[in-house]
Amino acid sequence: MRYLTCAFAAMTMMVNGANAQSVPCGGEFDTFVSELRAEAERQGFAPQVAADFLSGVRQDPDVLAADRRQGIFQDPFITFSRKLISQSRLDRGREMADRYDAVFDEIERRYGISRGVLLAFWAFETDFGAVQGDYNTLNALVTMAHDCRRPEIFRPQIFAALALHERGDFDPDTTTGAWAGEIGQVQMLPKDILENGQDADGDGRVTLKTSAPDALMSGAAMLSDLGWRHGEPWLQEVVLPEDFNWYDTGVHTTKTVAEWERLGVRARNGRLDDGRLEASIVIPQGRNGPAFIAYPNFKVFFEWNESFTYVLTAAYFATRLEGAPVYDAGDPAPGLSGEQMKALQSKLADRGYDVGGIDGILGAGTRNSVREVQRELGLPADAWPTPDLLNRL
Questions:
Q1: 270: left (phi > 0), else alpha (psi -120 to 50), else beta?
Q2: Which positions carry the signal peptide feature in this UniProt record (predicted)?
Q3: Which alpha helices (H) appear in 351-384, and where do they start and end?
Q4: What is the Cα–Cα distance from 57 to 170, expressed in whole angstroms?
Q5: Which of 99, 101, 134, 196 is the most buried (most CB within 10 A)?
């Protein structure tokens, strides 16, 4: 998991290793595969095992096409969340919570991860196991490693898959999954499976495609490994005062819950959590749209996926599965189309702001740049780009 795929999410990865410049990529595909075999041998794999494992690998143009086709992430939070969160998905999630109640109880006892979190990822990644992807996983990993956009992410996954193959848990010919190489019901990459795979059903195997208990427990182990704080919350809807300092919103600013309360932040339902916790205020569509307080565990979601809109939707859906009401959508100012967003990003870049790329997507770089230019222009600095802002620039 961790790169935007399949049923919306092949997940972005945090892989230890060399940077992009130092990882070989590109060139003739056959030569690249030969280099992979040589590297496998240097890592200690038997030459014949490495050769057999890579013997049938091929470049998959459909993988590259999928990697460059992620338009759904241009949708703003309200639109995106309403597409992904349906009553049928809520009902199905609650049904699965009951069906695997004992598994979730054990996850909560062992890792302190609330069941709504795993249910949300399970729903968004594969519709509770129904849509796991049919790309050949080895082809996908080698294709993405050969492509020079992110070889440092995908190349280590090839050797993790080879290690899984050695222990009988990966067949290069028949193992399938999402376009970016994730496998199973919660979409885990080979390296994550190798490090965090759990046999939760007691059959002696880690089978993430067919065993929901294995998939859920493995996903929980990975979240814990990524830094999930045992028993703590992750997200809660809030109401903000009209005179709030909008520049202080966003994950770049943290204060204690008690400090936010002194600034007038209130829970829309119930009470805010422990006043000593560090938290951020998140307003995905500006000061007139929904508002949330994001606790430390919210940041762990970004280790699963880098898209702010996806992460916020998954985190919010997790709260809905545990009884939170539908958020107050408010009346946010109209946003920008993809082409308008590109025009805005170009104008911001011309003014010296680092938007992170002219791609039409409201990512972290663009949000930060919008916030700064709003303050420069004397506008409410809520990081929400509007047609009015584009016209002013």
A1: left
A2: 1-20
A3: 364-376
A4: 14
A5: 196
Residue type, 353: Y
pTM beyond 0.70: the answer is yes
Under DSSP, the state recorded for 6 is: T
Token couple for 167: 């222990």
Could you tell me if 48 and 41 are in contact, meaning their C-beta atoms sit under 8 angstroms apart? no
Q: CA-to-CA distance for 274 and 228, rounded, in angstroms?
A: 17
Q: Rounded CA gap, 122 and 134, in Å? A: 17
Which candidate, 185, 186, 136, places its Cα nearest to that of 161? 136
Residues 41 and 157: beta-carbon distance below 8 Å: no
pLDDT in tens, 303-327: 888 889 999 999 999 999 999 999 9
The residues near 242 (Cβ < 8 Å, ≥ 6 apart) are none
Distance CA 60, CA 304 (A): 24
Write out the two tokens for 19: 């940077």
Alpha-carbon distances, residue 244 vs 204, 208, 335, 372 (angstroms): 55, 46, 21, 17
Q: Among all chains, which residue has been given the structure tokens 């338009």?
A: 71
Kindly tell me if the per-residue pLDDT of 82 is higher than 90: yes
Helix and strand numbers (H, E) in the chain are 16, 9
Q: Check: CB of residue 336 under 8 Å from CB of residue 219.
A: no
Residues 6+ apart with CB under 8 A from 92: 123, 128
Residue 248 has which token pair? 């202080």
Beta bridge partners of 183: 188
Q: Cβ(186)–Cβ(121) under 8 Å?
A: yes
Helix (H, G, I), strand (E, B) or coil at 10: strand
Query: Which segments of 197-340 are extended strands (E)?
Result: 235-239, 255-256, 266-267, 278-282, 292-294
Tokens representing residue 166 in the block: 């050695």
Tokens coding 148: 């020079």
Compute the distance between CA of residue 331 and CA of residue 285 in angstroms, rounded to an integer: 9
Assign 243 to helix, strand or coil. Answer: coil
356 pLDDT band, cuts 50/70/90, is: confident
Radius of gyration of the chain (CA): 22
DSSP state of 188: B
pLDDT at residue 183, rounded to an integer: 97
Q: How many CA atoms lie within 13 A of 307 on its CB side?
A: 23
Cβ neighbours of residue 30 under 8 Å, at least 6 residues apart? none
